[in-house]
Fold this sequence. Notes:
The protein is mostly helical.
Amino acid sequence: MTTPLDLTTSSYRRLLATPHVLRLLASAIVGHLPVAMTPLALLLAVRTDGGTVSLAGLLAAVYGVSAALGQPWWGRALDRRGHTPTLLFTGCASAVAFLALTVLPTAQYPAVAAALTAAAGLATPPLEAALRVLWPEVTPSDAQLRAALSLDASAQEVVFIVGPLLVLGIGIAAGPGATLGAAALLVLAGTLAFTTAAPARNWRPAAQRSADWMGPLRVRGPRVLALALAGAGAALGALNVLALALAESLNAPALSTLVPAALAVGSLAGGLLFGRMRLPGSTPRQLSATALGLAVGLTPFLLTPGPLASVITAVLPGLFLAPLLISVFASLEDLAPDGTLGEASAWMIAALGLGQAAGTAIAGTVGQTGPFLPATMALAGALLAAVTLLLGRRALATPRVPSRSESGHPILTV
């Protein structure tokens, strides 16, 4: 049984009134919107140029994979060089690549389009990792840090709801070619607003450490978390294919968008609730419980529910998705080696993204046979996450560390 909601110390209103919090969160959201906009924007741009759907799909895949692969390297740069140089370089490079794609006839020059798309993805600013490094610096209590991580995870769902809507709106108002230009402006605006905030300007890297190509993954705890997030990402990727298979099987085309949207709504609600609850048990148990909840929430899809039931069912796994992410990032502060929190956060983001790409690709090979196999693959990914966390619970168990009031150092105890 959970304890009552802590409506005072975990108040989101109080958190947002804390200096710098709203600016950092809002700028990170703005700068991250292109990640959600680009796949659809590329589809519109390629089709407008007379290109094929397969080319658009290829470019979208190139962008997603390159964005995931680039994050750990930029996370390491955050830890070693600081926020300002890393974010400004990546933000400007990504914006330039988007602007070049805006004027390039993609159908005529597919190889150049692929190279520019890869550049835009690889240079995605590590705003999520940077924000998670700064949360302990700007939140005055353990409760507010927990609320900040919850609000952060929930805000990512807003990104993936608003991003496609922006593409559609901009495409109608200014034409499909303007959508990639808008992505360039957003990534640049968000990055500039973030890097000019006082906490980002004043943050300094920890003392230089010896080079280690594995970075935080040389420690078992972060490796366990990364593998678990890869499994969760695979479940999310398979769910996208499942939504399309349900739409075709049930002759309800809207399900292809309503099911992912319902998952996002569930995750948004779950994250906000989780940030205001005090749950019993150790951090490893909470991690396992949220991953298992994700799997249980996906199980009804094996029965191929009807259109309305499918939308309602999609909310269930979403309720556990954001809490899983919150628990993972809350654990990193204790598990990541000193001076590697930015890179560790980036590895988690990369693991989730790569798992999602793999889940989409694998489930796509069986999606033509109906919704059962994609549903099975989504469930398998969630179970992989749960089993990984259960087997790795000893690596995830860390001794209790002093709270802020005891040590002066911002530590989150979940």
